[in-house]
## 1
Amino acid sequence: MTNAFGILVFNPGNCTGCRICEMACSFFHYREYNPSRSRIRVLKIEKEGIYIPMTCLHCGNPPCVDACPTGAMYRADGSVELDTKKCINCRMCMLACPFGAISVDRVTMNVIKCDLCKGDPQCAKYCPAGAIKYVRVERAGEMRRRSYADRTAGAISLSQSKGW
Amino acid sequence: MGGYMGRILRVDLSSGKIVDVETSKDLISKYIGGLGFVVRILWDEIDERTDPLGPENRLVIATGPLTGTMFPAAGRYQMGAKSPLTGVWGQSNSGGFFGPELKFSGYDAIIIQGRSERPVYLCIYDGKPEIKKADHLWGKNTYETADMIREELDDREVKIAAIGQAGENLVKFANVMTGFHNFAGRTGMGAVMGSKKLKAIAVRGFNSVNVADPEKFERVLEKAYDLVLNKWGKAYRESLTTYGTPNLVDAINDMGRMPVKNHWTGYWDKAEKIGGYTIRRLYRVKQGSCFGCLAQCKYFVKTKQEGLSGLFKGPEYEAIVSLGSCLLIDNFDAVAYANNLADLYGMDSISLGMTIAWAMECYEKGIITKEDAGVDLSWGNYEAVIQLIHDIAFRRGFGNILAEGSYRASRIIGRGSEKYAMHVKGLEISAQDGRAQQSSGLTHATAARGADHLTSLSCLEERGYANVAAERYGEDKVKDLVDPLSTKYKGMLVKDLEDLYALGNSLIICWYEVGWPPVFYFDEMAEALHVVTGVDLFSSVSYVREAAERIVILRRMFNIREGLRRKDDTLPERFLREPMPSGPAKGHVCRLDEMLDEYYEHRGIDKTTGIPKDETLIRLGLGDLAGRYR
């Protein structure tokens, strides 16, 4: 059972593309380093310095759950879970996911996806750039709001704030 | 055994034969990986008769046991060959993502020999090596080459090491791009690839890097991350993460050690214009990083000046000096643009800038005229510099002479220009000055690949790390160790750091973990090495230290075999006789001889010849080399 109040939030603007998240994920799940077995991946446009961490977003209305014929993929409180005992590895969930967040592990040939590391997501724990955070659901969006407020603060002087 | 993939790939481009052999236990236990592997392989497979640009030269690319793990900044690989620039020992390493990918593809190292008739590239996809045609890539720059290979293989995750036009045209200081923003820069490794008609190496792999004891490694990681993020966090976050290496421009200029005007002096009142604070404020748009790094010093800039505008990889401290202050260029748009050109053509920005600086000083002294050069080589003329960068890459006109590097170019021009070539052993001097920091002079003089800041450069006196100095070398030596102008104990210091860097380059971890700030020392590195590999011998720190020493001494023997002796461990006259004309270190020269004797003594090297003593060789298990050279 994962923490129902936790949510993974991403800020690609902060991501530096170091891929520590991929390694932390692979090491947590398999005790070895192999980015191709990681459930999170950093997609890059190198020449422009653009890096985007991608993993399961734990949708509220998950298409993968709708597509799953056996009920292995299900929506729990705050997360989308995969019951490997029920999974028949048909990969319908992969077809349905609009983000490519579900992949196949080359060693076991099983479908894999983010499981929030039993409530302590390693990608968020180790991200040195502040691009991935695991926060209470009530605080989702708060950091973006705060950073916008901080940036705006510099542009607003007291004299300008008098009415419209 | 953890850490190693267990295979070394050998590619003969003359015959097209590809074989792979087991990574031998003997090689692992005596030479660790990375630099150690490169040293042993080059010692065994080439000798003093080998032509650096001939088919018999070897290009060795080696990863280390920590490469591809989560240990901080362990995303590097080491490259080595006999250098076409210096004719002696050549090595260069690079961050980025190529090294780990090579391990994921199942190899610890690649040895490339021979020479192909037609341009080719080596493709290792999912562990299967293949030589592919590269006629269509020949003539393309580094970025175009990488893009075209990715398109051809229909995979944008492929990691690519490639040369640009400079490597093809055998520019002596051509480098190797690895993944757009990282370069194995020094000693002309790109020209070695060009001579073999090897345009690129493309790698993608899906294997795992295993750790012998995952539970223990988790604890090693926790400790290492804590050291970096908490103990040294302030130094990292404020400097490397916020400003990147350009922060050094301001700091080192204040110390009077930042080369200006072809190393004429060490202080510039205009340094701020191309320094870290200015870049951060006016140019910086994004931050980047190498594989698994916590320092994350890479950055991107946007320049706006007409004709020089674009989105570029931010130039590092060394490039800002060689293409900026050493040419008296205080226009950052021009520095970033020139640095980007060097990247696209695939040239070492240090040697490139310093060679042009030599030409500019010769122009000032009237040795080279406008007719010789084809451009007005007045100090600060960035338009001429940009023109010359194009000409060097394609070896056109005067650029053809500069493409030989400052040492050879000065021998071609003659007329007293030799004394303005700022080189050691043929390699242009990096952005330190032995007059302002005595130990950096010793580092430049003794480094095997020539004047170099990544062989043993000390940071203890740079920022006054008195606690670290006391912890490592004893309270009584601290006063002299942290004084940049004192020569006392500096021979001991440089010897110790040379071993430390050799170990760091064998694991391989970045300089920003072992050098500045001084995060890891032998104990932490040996522990990580032992836990990752599970090799019992590595549990002893003194054994690991000895292995590092062996690597350094065998690397020195490579140069001894080439005929280098004590007389070659020296600096240009400028550092030894011309007192620093301005800045905080005004009036000082580098008192090299005092330090050199102490260094040889600690290193176990004969003071008259500069050859490692027989007893040193025997102690390190290299007894078969004893007495061979006089």
Note: Chain B has 27 helices and 17 strands.
## 2
Amino acid sequence: MNKSASVVIIGGGISGCAIAYNLAKKGVKDVIIIEKEYLSSGATGRCGAGIRMQWGTEMNCRLAKYSVEFFETANEVLEYAGDVEFKQGGYLIIAATEKEVAQFQKNIKLQNSLGIPSRYITPQEAKEIVPHMDETQILGAAFNPKDGHLNPFHTTQAYADAAVRLGVEIMKYTEVTGIKVENGKIAGVQTDKGYISTPVVVNAAGGHAQIISEMVGVKLPLYSERHQILVTEAVEPMQGPMFMSFSQNIYCQQTPHGSFIMGRGDPTEPRDLRVTSSWEFLEEMAKTCIRFLPPLKDIRMVRQWAGLYNMSPDAQPIYGPVKDVEGFFLACGYSGHGFMFGPVTGVVVSESILGEEHTIPVDALSYDRFEKGELILEPSVV
Amino acid sequence: MIKTDIVVIGGGPAGICAAINAASSGAKVLLLDRDSQLGGQLIKQTHMFFGSQKQHASVRGIDIPGILVKEMEEYKDNIQIMLDATVLGIYEDGVLTIEKNDDYIKIKPKGIIVATGASEKFPAFPNNDLPGIYGAGAVQTLMNVYGVSPGKSVFMVGAGNIGLIVSYQLVQAGVEVKGVICRGPRYGGYAVHASKLKRIGVPIMPGHRVIHAHGKDKLERITLIKLDENKKEISGTEFDIETDVLCISTGLTPLGELLWQMGCEMKFIREFSGHVPVRNEELETTVPGVFVAGDVAGIEEASSAMVEGRLAGLCCAKKLGFTNPEYSSLKEDYLQQLHDLRSGPVGDGIRKGLAKIVV
């Protein structure tokens, strides 16, 4: 079954759906999303779903702030029949080393200058916010009450529903097998369900973005890293904020319905696109969690899973065109924070495609920053 | 971490037989069950078995585990049994994690035989979670394991062998059985079971289904509707029956979660009532060293589950280098027994299912 489209977006996660929605809202007809499985089946649906504005670069602070402000009104703006379940219980990022203390104080200055209401707090103040923590394990913490947690399935569905109402077509269980380039320009996309002729392809393929790019001969400096998560049984609400440590490799959040989810990655693992689970994760995660949040030792875990971080050399996304292949746009390399940047991704990538000026300047996140050696290293990632 | 040659998951008829045959071939076996006794569903089956002598025909289900456990004692140096042990997961490196009395245990076997059995299917209708609505397995457990009557009056949904047998047992236990329904135009179980019920005056009513359950705190009443020969509802034929227990016996579906987790190729096979693993004649799945036996491989019955268990145990051990001196003749015998059990019109569906799943 062959067809044509004005834009083909590869990937039915938050990025793909947000880009499609923004294009359709600006009046672009014949936008198609191709998704290998079902919506949110990749990194979006597998992520820890934390939303934070506490970053160490001005760029990421701006991207995050824009997205948080969108999430606050997402149900209304997207006219969603459900609820994206945005819980703004804050992020408590603990400092376990002197280096982190210094870094956080620097970060907070930057964040405050951009209107992000974060503050540095003492171990005792942290204990007041998360009473079940062992405050003797930390030197201090950064806290922003406006950070939080969001349901990735509902949020993606909200974008997808709105996009479909505006005429976007979503092809699920459809796999891209090749991309046709003629005279340096995108000509079409080959899928296992037929060929789609199109002048524009957006690579929003998450953990598989480097594979998609190779189809047009572009070698992205990206690799995917497995991150694992466990979820516990639901208990009474007891923890408002996300509890997080960069140096100790933990994030742990209580979701609105009461279960705790916590996760981490292991950078030494083979980079083989696996999303299976390991028992080593379970044991290490539980040990770390109990060290900082001792009462959680009595809660039963019910499930674990894994997903892929699409890692870029400076832990920041890659947005925009690729100069050697006209019509090929990138929305990848999020390094673990693609879900929380979904709204801004949708806006800036649709603007790139239409040649419009960016709402937030993201030229510094273009693909050629790697060629020029102009990396903007993000120090605050887990 | 416990190391062993073969882990058998599930101590029902298939799992016990798998453990016996793996151990008799020389492999060290660890047999796991989440219940506190071996036997699986046999421990509640007070009726006598059919089939041939080799599969314990004319013996009551509850007596079979004892016979098998006695046989297992011959190989006690090779078999370790762990009860109250629930398998939590099987990981990418072949490690199993287990919960036993709140302890967390890890096991690394060389081969795995999955004999986890099946779970009951439950039809959807409003209020189907009211207290008083049971699966037939739960009714049998109450009655035959604990000696507790499920209620004063029972209405049975499903007229396969389990529905018919449990209805008869309920009457024997002094419970009023108000009727047995099924959706098709004829009951599905053996005529011998249906005739017994008819003789004692329990109405078997083909061509009906439950569309609603009623009651405040527990079941008081159900609404039935008549179905035409295509199982379509005939409007205007609804009627109510008062009962304090509704027993659901609408079939089983294989419990294949662990197989999915290990990445075994699974296929939906209608004749086997769910997703079952693709496997070869020796019952090895598409994941090398992982074998299956019994209902998890496709809903059948306990006789064939026992033979499958023996075959899987024999072949899994062989795969690991423990070759039974009588390997060839035993294998041929088990395959012949399975062939015989599945012959005739009753085995039609099973044979069709096998043709789609055995490679």
Note: The domain at 2-47+153-222+314-372 of chain A is CATH 3.50.50.60 (FAD/NAD(P)-binding domain).
## 3
Amino acid sequence: MSVAADVREQSRARYPDEEGYVERDGVRVFYEVYGDGEPTILLLPTWALIHSRHWKLQIPWLARHCRVVTFDGRGNGRSDRPHGAEAYTIREFAADTLAVMDATATERAVLVGVSCAALWGVVLAAEHPERVAGAAFIGSAVPLAPPLPERTVYPFDERLDTDDGWAKYNLHHWLTDYRNFLEFFIGKCFTEPHSTKPIEDAIGWAHETTPEVLADHDAGIDLPIGGDFRELCRRVRCPVLVMHGDEDALHSHARGVALAEATGGQLVTLEGSGHFPQARDPVMINLLLREFVERLP
Amino acid sequence: MIAELGTLEQSRARYPDDEGYVERDGVRVFYEVYGDAPTTFLLFPPSPISHSRLWKAQIPYLSRHFRVVAFDPRGNGRSDRPTSAEAYGWWEFVADGRAVLEASGAQEALVGGLCDGGGWALMLAASDPAAVLGVAAIAPFVPRLTPSHPNYRLYPSDVPLDTDEGWAKCNVHHYRRDYQGFLEFFFSQQLPEPHSTKQIEDCVRWGLEGGAESLILADEEAPPPWASAEEARDICRRVRCPVLVIHGDLDNCQTRERATAVAELTGGTLVTLEGAGHLPQARHPVKVNGLFREFGESVAPPAPKVKTWTRALSRRRRALYVSSPIGLGHARRDVAIAKELRQLHPDLEIDWLAQHPVTTVLEAEGERIHPASALLANESGHIESESAEHDLHAFQAIRRMDEILVANFMLFLDVVREENYDLWIGDEAWEVDYFLHENPELKSAAYVWLTDFVGWLPMDDGGEHEEFLTTDYNAEMIEHIARFPRIRDRAVFVGNPDDVVPNSFGNGLPGIRDWTEQHYDFSGYVTGFEPVADREKLRDELGYRPGERVCIVTVGGSGVGGELLRRVIDAYPQAKALLPELRMIVVAGPRIDPGSLPQQDGLEIHAYVHELYRHLAACDLGVVQGGLTTAMELTANRRPFLYFPLRHHFEQSFHVHHRLERYGAGRRMDFETDGPAEIAAAIAEEIGREVDYAPVETDGAARAAALIAELL
């Protein structure tokens, strides 16, 4: 399983037509723009574990039909890595998104996100309906259904006398053996057999950041957003597509079901899929995204 | 070209849920409503040259996804035939559509139209934008928008001509002399695709319902809606809703320029159908249905529904078995094949898309019937509606089932798009086979075709015309297979090469036997049961006493058999007199009411006999129709039998007869000439006779399954 992280980026199928930085409170965020079709699809960042290359299987095709904007979330890729939980709140990610939209002259976009991207995606769709034409969420890490029981056994901050299973999701273990955590955690992202390449990719991207950043990001996500998340979901008026693997080992399928229900969106269950189907079953995800975009009013 | 035009409407695939009339200025217009989906799809009729049945291939499908409202134009169908030219002004038809929409209870609708109807749909959208969500127009006729089709400029339409060749028939004086001749010419031009005989017949029939005067008033004498090309352009520009224009590049009525202009001026999308004529909704219904639905759903998206997509390697192995419901015969052999298939692939799940009476067998066997089966249009009922006294013109009955076949194919398509099947099996599933070859891009699984006969054959009294038709159908099938060999991954003939008739497919076409040997695998016959080992024991089990001579009279699962049962019942007293030990048992079957049959002393009549094949195996004589299944059950069990092919039933008359001859099985009777006396005599001669039939193989199901299993 163990592979050396290759620092050299592999050839892309499509290179951006435009790239740049936005800066907010001294934090620089790197974005890319592909194509010039209609509408704009904004591929959101997720947890700082990985960066915008997690959309590499979507960008080339979507960019032939739409305009695609994506950016590295703060904490990874070519974006800055600020310190402290306050720099990584849900609202900071939402504000970065708006800043990237402004910088790229994107008045309105379809938001697409994986995992915790649904947190800032819902905030944006609920609070900025004029800028969000639709929202599609994959493997949503939303607090609308309980976390998986195995993820609640061990505390994150305390030193543990085991590193068995989810005990690896622990600050001290991260600082001691980050790679070991990554192999476990990213392995959990891909429950599908024959996933070596997407696992290697993600491990490589995860090595572009540090455990300290991830800990800050986790703490930032937990800071209050000034309202109830479920209430925010109910305020979403744009069309919503929720895709969720029924074998998602990070965030239960029930969370996707609840998100679709709360936003009045359409649920597509991906049977046999794990947490990152956009990397593992790119053709179906691409087709679902395009169909969703084409059906927007 | 048209031999005879029956007046009776053929079975529909879907009947309206509601119907009614709107009346404007004393003119009554008839409309129908189908389904109850949230979005209404209003279908404008064409000009009085036809009526709302022109949409028969669309309505059953669209009404599962939209609420469909269709109406007959003034001048045809069940609408009035006003006699003034003003009553046929273009805005009158538009206003009729508006009134029908309102009467149906809809505020707004998607609007479809063809030719004139396409123009009316656009006019409604331009004049009442709040009522129209979107316009789907096939070959729209917008007068004066562009020069009319060159065909219409060859001859003047209103002065007497000294010729009626070709387009000279498009003339008021010719209409009055020979309207049918005009219609036959006109629609053969509008359906230039080869193998369009049925669609042309339909259009001629519908045209005759309107008559020449309606068309003359509407086309020649009614005031034009506007005077200039600029006004025509203005109407198009005023359409603000989404527009879809469909146009066949072989259209002999509306030009490509006109279709292009409509699309450009309305900002609509033009879809060109290459190789298609003026009536693609009739000749290419699957394509047009897909375009209409896709357009409708893009304009008015349906409510979100939960969907599931399953990763390829997480999928269970699944097959969809489509079993023809015409007669009970296929059910048992298909179940036998399915069982053998599960032996070879124990993880295989089989769903059945099937209808009564096949479903009675499937239910008894615990097979899984796909819930969409309930939505299949009724084929058995249609076949019964096509039959008369011991008479079923099987070829025409299949032709007149065209609407049902389209509807059932569309249902099949919805099912296989929603669910992942690895394999489709069609046992004489004509709709699946035909429309896959017509729309080869829709094939998305392995596909197996099974049949027990190949080749449409004309009956002797059908004359040249019937020969022309069967040849045309055979030719299209041969072209389909030659052009798209990839559609049938297996073609299995349920029988042996010697069972194939020695006839030709028709003039200029190959011999059926040679062609079939080249294009089919042969499974041998599939009886669906084990032959009886100990007949005496079986007789004992079934309650047949020693010394009794048991004669079983059955017409299988068909409802087309009451006359034969009555004739044999009439023969019973004479037969009993010749043969005192005779015990006659009449089985009415699932589709004939036993109470409708006459009773005789000593005669037994049953509605249904469980495991009838066991009784046939035990009997001393069978008296049956000419259907393959029952005759072969008797043959396999080496029982003597009398069989009466249905009149005009080419399959029973030629294909089954040929096969039974090969086995040396059965005594062919003739319903025309054999009365009760002849039947009684034949019963007495044949009953209990030792037979020397060629043996029937018992491994047919396993061989068929082995051929199919390779695809999984």
Note: The longest helix of chain B spans residues 463-483.
